């Protein structure tokens, strides 16, 4: 990081929007917000945005929470309590709260920031970076800040190329030769393609850079507008595109890659299929996301656990794993694992066979179970002899099965099997 970028980062606050449910994850987000979802063995999804900020030199952070926030808040308290006020560092957890003239809940992404203007102004940052707390990626925000200042933009919007058919869920933009955003449409039914690339669209990553006082003025006007949905993508950004200077920042310019990562990595793991795929992909010989890169660490809460253990060495009862990742505290007892991703404290018992299993913390797979292409929620107890992934009709009747054949299993689903 050069001196100019470092100086800009020190003058900046990051504001993370972490209140979303993530309804397309179904039962996985019944008790936790999407940013609090487990990912990559030890981390939560929000750790990526927070780690990017810290690694970029931004040490003032606010996290706006809303839906089912307890799991997220507990994680932040346990894993992100290392900030020191005497070093001009802080992490504020900002739940929606009753205020004079306001309802309890945040009405939109812009309203989430507007309701915390006094907190933001209390720290006096010159710049503010607005971040979504529910994506997996590594990015140096200081490079985006530098472009924002040098371009004289009113807002700089992080953007990424996505397949046209997936663009309906994003803000889609048209950009000129000088990176100036000429048009911005939030979640269009018929997204426009990129010039020369009919199968791609340029989508917003939900990352915005502003001068703080400029944003505060905008938010105050937006709050007084009865016709506004109080949303960045729906209201604030389109207004700046029309009446100010909005500039795009391609993710490829500031993504962080180790020597193993061949192309920029960004994932929205907002569906059951996407969540399963992104975790299983990490077991590849050469994964697209390098979690072993110590030059850009993903900070998180690390539980104190014993090392993973593999036991029994008999024919048909041999604890072993192939192309799998196994976290601390796991015991693989006489079981076979192939392309599996086990989070902390998972236990597998003798003669069980697991293929393509993503098991969240403290799940337990009892004897002679056979699981294929499955996600196990935290603490799920798989009964002895249960077979999943071999009979699509039977799986769909008992569990949540996607069109791609991934089965999501929660403890209430298991409890219903005995009734």
TrEMBL record:
| One example GO MF annotation | ATP binding
Q: Where does alpha-D-glucose 1-phosphate bind?
A: 106, 171, 186-187, 204
Gene Ontology biological process: glycogen biosynthetic process
Q: Which reaction does it catalyse?
A: alpha-D-glucose 1-phosphate + ATP + H(+) = ADP-alpha-D-glucose + diphosphate
What InterPro entries does UniProt report for this protein, alphabetically? ADP-Glc_PPase, ADP_Glu_pyroP_CS, GlgC_bac, GlmU/GlgC-like_hexapep, NTP_transferase_dom, Nucleotide-diphossugar_trans, Trimer_LpxA-like_sf
Report the residue ranges that make up the Glucose-1-phosphate adenylyltransferase/Bifunctional protein GlmU-like C-terminal hexapeptide domain in this protein.
306-409
Which parts of the sequence are marked as the site Could play a key role in the communication between the regulatory and the substrate sites? 66, 105
- Top-level EC class, please? transferase
Gene3D superfamilies reported in the protein's UniProt record:
Hexapeptide repeat proteins, Spore Coat Polysaccharide Biosynthesis Protein SpsA, Chain A
- Biological pathway: Glycan biosynthesis; glycogen biosynthesis
| Any Pfam family the entry gives | NTP_transferase
| Residue stretches making up the Nucleotidyl transferase domain | 14-283
Q: Which UniProt keywords apply?
A: ATP-binding, Carbohydrate metabolism, Glycogen biosynthesis, Glycogen metabolism, Nucleotide-binding, Nucleotidyltransferase, Transferase
Q: What is its EC number?
A: 2.7.7.27
Spell out the family assignment given in the record's similarity comment: Belongs to the bacterial/plant glucose-1-phosphate adenylyltransferase family.
Q: Which HAMAP family match?
A: GlgC
Task performed by this protein: Involved in the biosynthesis of ADP-glucose, a building block required for the elongation reactions to produce glycogen. Catalyzes the reaction between ATP and alpha-D-glucose 1-phosphate (G1P) to produce pyrophosphate and ADP-Glc.
Q: How does it assemble?
A: Homotetramer.
Q: What is this protein called?
A: Glucose-1-phosphate adenylyltransferase
User: Which organism is this protein's natural source?
Assistant: Pelagimonas varians
The gene name on file is: glgC
């Amino acid at each position: 990081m050069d001196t100019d970028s470092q100086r800009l980062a020190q003058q900046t606050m990051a504001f993370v929007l972490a209140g979303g449910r993530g309804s397309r994850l179904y039962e996985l987000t019944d008790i936790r917000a999407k940013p609090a979802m487990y990912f990559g063995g030890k981390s939560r999804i929000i750790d990526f945005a927070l780690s990017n900020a810290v690694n970029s030199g931004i040490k003032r952070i606010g996290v706006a929470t809303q839906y089912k926030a307890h799991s997220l808040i507990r994680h932040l308290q346990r894993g992100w309590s290392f900030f020191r006020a005497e070093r001009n560092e802080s992490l504020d957890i900002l739940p929606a709260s009753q205020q004079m003239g306001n309802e309890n809940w945040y009405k939109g992404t812009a309203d989430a920031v507007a309701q915390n203007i006094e907190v933001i102004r209390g720290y006096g940052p010159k710049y503010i970076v607005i971040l979504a707390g529910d994506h997996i990626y590594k990015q140096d925000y200081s490079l985006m800040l530098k472009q924002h200042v040098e371009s004289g933009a009113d807002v700089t919007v992080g953007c990424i190329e996505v397949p046209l058919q997936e663009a309906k869920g994003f803000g889609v933009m048209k950009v000129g030769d000088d990176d100036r955003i000429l048009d911005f449409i939030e979640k269009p039914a018929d997204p426009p393609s990129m010039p020369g690339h009919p199968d791609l669209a340029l989508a917003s990553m939900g990352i915005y850079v502003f001068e703080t006082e400029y944003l505060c003025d905008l938010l105050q006007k937006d709050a007084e507008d009865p016709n506004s949905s109080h949303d960045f993508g729906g209201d604030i950004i389109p207004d700046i595109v029309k009446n100010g200077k909005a500039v795009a920042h391609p993710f490829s310019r500031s993504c962080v890659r180790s020597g193993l990562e061949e192309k920029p990595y960004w994932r929205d793991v907002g569906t059951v299929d996407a969540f399963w795929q992104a975790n299983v992909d990490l077991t590849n010989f050469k994964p697209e996301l390098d979690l072993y890169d110590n030059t850009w660490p993903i900070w998180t809460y690390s539980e104190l656990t014993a090392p993973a253990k593999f036991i029994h060495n008999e024919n048909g009862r041999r604890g072993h794993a192939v192309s799998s990742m196994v976290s601390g505290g796991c015991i693989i007892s006489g079981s076979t694992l192939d392309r599996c991703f086990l989070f902390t404290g998972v236990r597998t018992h003798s003669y069980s066979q697991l293929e393509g299993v993503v098991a969240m913390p403290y799940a337990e797979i009892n004897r002679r179970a056979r699981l294929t292409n499955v996600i196990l929620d935290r603490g799920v107890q798989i009964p002895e002899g249960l077979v999943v992934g071999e009979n699509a009709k039977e799986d769909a009747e008992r569990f949540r099965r996607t069109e791609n054949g991934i089965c999501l299993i929660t403890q209430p689903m298991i409890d219903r099997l005995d009734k």
